[in-house]
Amino acid sequence: MLFFLISCLSFILLSKSLSLKPLPKWTSETRLLSFGFWDDLPWLLVALLRKVRQTGGSFFRIFVDMSFKKRRFGTKKVIHMEENDGMSVLDLPELALECILERLPPLALYNMTGVCSSLRERCRSDYLWERHMKEKWGRLLGIAALREWQGHIASKNEFLGNQSKRKGLAKSLSCVWPISWIRSKVQNCSKPRSYFPVDSMMAWYLSLESGKFWFPAQVYNREHGHVGFMLSCYDAEVSYDNRTDTFQARYPPHGRRTIVIEEGVQWDRLRAPTLATLPHDLHVSDCLNDLRPGDHIEIQWRRNKEFPYGWWYGMVGHLESCDGNEYHCCCHVSDTVSLEFNQYTPGSRWRRSIINRKDHREEGNETDGFYGGIRKLCRNEEITMWKRLWPTEVLE
Asked: 47 near 66, Cβ under 8 Å?
């Protein structure tokens, strides 16, 4: 097609230079058309390329259609209509434009960054993306996820810094080795740059949405609700899968067992880590003096010393010496606290555990496992979540 255009233009120039005799009257119209053609050539090419992308049709057929429209309506008139086809969105008042951008969904807001440089600066601002982060990811992102993201940013900035050093070295070596060879090496080691800052809220949202960013979270009833993990919550690194609207969970290794990956984890089985305690560390309890019968708690438990802790749901019960009468109960002043796990059958070794209120440390053995720190549940949302996960059958 380009060859066809060049041939036509060359023919017009050649005929213009060889015209020595007086030309007929109709040639003045042709010359005027050629001058208009030169003025409108860039607009015609842009419109042609846009139409090729939209229709995917043949190049020759589209050019014939556009030529027919030009002869029928006139080039100047068509371009004039395109240039004055309504008011631009940038002509809106500042407040009106801001209200429109605030109501855009994340995908539309991201697409708006490719319209022009002015909208790019507006649409990638943290103010607009912070609301989307809170609405979709706020429940799962805690302090641990923020620290993980900050570490991710630091490593990415270090990579970009090394990349710029590589390019500076390539310039200094250009006098020794061929430039084409050096350019190929640098391009192989570098990645295309994005047009938004790596530490922006938009970058964090897109990294979460694409599944490239693994962040710390806790999973209820791990490994698809295995009976050995019912009414527990374990630490994991999770990654989002936008095709299925679920997550992948990557549990830390323990003992001889390697990393376990669970797929298809639903949103309602995830929560942000409630404490800053690492999976293998003992939580220092600060609620022991406040525990009394009827309180809902979570307690650390692990099979042996090599395993990470998981958080298990239970309740504070009455001591054996107490008849359970609330008017005569003195369990809250005793140094001993009875913990009950009513999801297990009466008589099960997992049904009940006793801890010391004054000097509580990790307690247990290799047979029954080890009990660690305790946190008291004060929010109804947490208690309701555990009740919703209650097993349909009593565990042995």
From this structure: yes
Query: ∠ CA 229-230-231 to the nearest 5 degrees?
Result: 115
185: left (phi over 0), alpha (psi -120 to 50) or beta: alpha
Each residue of 216-264: pLDDT tens digit? 999 999 998 888 899 999 999 999 999 999 999 999 887 667 788 999 9
Assign 251 to helix, strand or coil: strand
Task: Give SS3 for 250.
Answer: strand
The neighbouring-strand residues paired with 218 are 235, 271
Report the DSSP beta bridge partners of residue 355.
337
Q: Which of 3-12, 160-169, 293-302 is predicted with the least confidence, judged by mean pLDDT?
A: 3-12
How many angstroms separate the Cα of 210 from the Cα of each of 29, 241, 243, 247? 58, 7, 10, 11
The amino acid sitting at 236 is: A
Give the residue from 263, 217, 257, 255 showing the smallest Cα distance to 238: 217
Entry pTM = 0.69
The owner of tokens 């490239």 is 212
- 371 CB-near residues (< 8 Å, 6+ apart): 299, 300, 301, 339, 353, 355, 362, 363, 364
Question: For the residues of 330-395, what is the DSSP string, one character each?
Answer: -GGGSSEEEEE-TTBPTT-TTSEEEEESSS---EEETTTEEEEEEEE---HHHHHHHHHT--SS-B
Q: Give the per-residue SS3 of 20-43.
A: CCCCCCHHHHHHHHHHHHHHHHHH
